[in-house]
Amino acid sequence: MLSKDQVNVLESLGYSHWTRSGHNRLYIDAKKIGLDARIGKSGLIKEAAFNGESIDIHTAAAILNGKYYIDMEDESIHTVIHGGSKLAGEIASYIENRIEDDLNAVRDPEKSFMGAFLDDGIRGNSLVR
Prior knowledge:
Elements: H1 4-12, E1 16-20, E2 23-27, E3 35-39, E4 45-50, E5 53-55, H2 57-64, E6 67-71, E7 76-80, H3 86-107, H4 114-119
Antiparallel strand pairs: 1-2, 2-6, 3-4, 4-5, 6-7
């Protein structure tokens, strides 16, 4: 189980702590990991990109509506998308790897880029990637 300090660091990276009905999770929004979707007045996606590369709107919708989280009980990572293309699956795998990197960084900060931030006592502040 992650410590309160580790949860605070993940929250500073954009994760949201959610507890309900016996579940204890840290969610991350795909927009915080590289999805840029422009939504029109109709509420539909007009254009989208992931990490600066254009993607089709159907893939963007699948990624945008996906769920990406760390289960706090066993520290397992979950990426759930419905529909979408092969590219959506590849992006979901990328997101899963990013979450794994973040999780590993808080488990052992001395081996990560976050170690310097933690040593300087910047816990809880926004860290820009």
